Amino acid sequence: MQAEILQAPRPGARETQIESFHIYGNRAAVTCVAPDSGVITHNIRLFAKEGGDWRLLGWANEPA
Q1: According to the model, what pLDDT value does residue 14 have?
Q2: How many structural domains does the chain have?
Q3: What CATH number does the domain containing 33 carry?
Q4: Contact between residue 54 and residue 37 where contact means Cβ atoms under 8 Å apart
Q5: Beta strands across the sheet bearing 17-24
Q6: What angle do CA 19, 47, 7 make, to 5 degrees?
Q7: Which residues make Cβ contacts (< 8 Å) with residue 49, sequence separation at least 6?
Q8: For residue 2, what pLDDT is reported?
Q9: In Å, what is the CA distance from 53 to each residue of 7, 17, 20, 32, 62?
Q10: In Å, how far are 50, 60 from 45, measured between CA atoms?
């Protein structure tokens, strides 16, 4: 299920390192470290399942 939620919305060679992953029914909270264009950021992402698909609702990030 983690892979389904974290599928990259845009193509590219990106390796996301998951720190924590919690599912609360139709919601999920993920913390991870992600490199993008040479910058490494720490992310907190919030997802919701709608119509059978996971949708990213929002995120907060800062340089790692």
Answers
A1: 65
A2: 1
A3: 3.10.450.50
A4: no
A5: 17-24, 27-36, 39-50, 53-63
A6: 70
A7: 26, 27, 28, 55
A8: 63
A9: 11, 22, 21, 21, 27
A10: 16, 7
Q: Which residues are 15's β-sheet partners?
A: none
Tell me what pLDDT residue 1 has: 59
DSSP string, 29-52: EEEEEEEETTEEEEEEEEEEEETT
Could you list the pLDDT tens digit for every one of the 64 residues in the chain?
566 666 655 555 667 889 999 999 999 999 999 887 788 899 999 999 999 888 999 999 898 8
The parent domain of residue 36 ranges over 2-63
